[in-house]
Amino acid sequence: MTNGPEEKQPPVPPKAAEGAATPAAPPKPAAAAPPKPPAPPKEGPVPLDNELVKRYRARFGEVLREAWTDRKQTILVVSLEHLLEAAQFTRDDEQFDLLTDLTAVDWPKREKRFDLVLNLYSFPKQERLRIKAQVGEGEPAASVAGIWPTANWLEREVYDMFGIVFAGHPNLKRLLLPEEWEGFPLRKDYDILQQDDAWVRENLGIESGQ
To answer: What is the 3-state secondary structure (H, E, C) of 118-183?
Structure first.
């Protein structure tokens, strides 16, 4: 038996009434919606008017017909009559010192059916540039072999496959096909099964190459 004050006990919470519902937990906040992914870049040509284009317009005016970018590729369209002048400026002033490729595209229903395409690279600037010019049937294009030596064989291939003549080329003749071959296989109106029957008969001794 102790004579000190009685030790206080913590109050006992009242028992919940039998059958009473347990209070529901507060709802969790909804998760934030994930951010929407950025819209994909626009495909196809987008008009271009950067500093490069402004320099060409200042130098050539209307000679520069169009300028756009497509999949990060800068493309300039110049008049065929001034292609050589534009090419010289592109190498000397804009420092595109390497012609990586020269080819063509055939649009047989268009008035000027060919696109002549020059793909260029600048080692000093580490940039690429594409220059295009429209060429009509039987219309000569100026050779750029004197500006970029790689054009020598590339122009011969375009002549061989498309029939585009390059004025001023040092040795313009077929590159892949024999000189006697008739037609230009990369024109869209050239039948894929067509053969120069006379050449095949004379040189291979058979009636058809098929």
So the answer is: EEEEECCCCEEEEEEEEECCCCCEECCCCCCCCHHHHHHHHHHHHCCCEECCCCCCCCCCCCCCCC
Question: How many Å apart are CA 210 and CA 106, to the nearest integer?
Answer: 25
Dihedral sign computed on CA atoms, order 92, 94, 99, 104? negative
Q: How far apart are the first and last CA of the chain?
A: 124
pLDDT at 19: 55
Cross-sheet strand order for the sheet of 127-135 = 46-47, 64-70, 73-78, 127-135, 114-122, 98-106
Q: How far apart are CA 38 and CA 129, in angstroms?
A: 28
- Phi first, then psi, for residue 98 (nearest 5°) are -130, 125
d(C-alpha 167, C-alpha 44), whole Å: 33
Q: Which CATH superfamily is domain 46-171 in?
A: NADH:ubiquinone oxidoreductase Nqo5 subunit (3.30.460.80)
Domain residue ranges in the chain: 46-171, 177-210
pLDDT of the chain, 210 residues: tens digit per residue: 455 555 566 665 555 555 555 566 666 766 677 777 776 655 678 999 999 999 999 999 999 999 999 988 999 999 999 999 999 999 999 999 999 999 999 999 999 999 999 999 999 999 999 999 999 999 999 999 999 999 999 999 999 999 999 999 999 999 999 998 989 999 999 987 777 777 788 888 887 656
- CA 158 – CA 154 distance, rounded (Å): 6
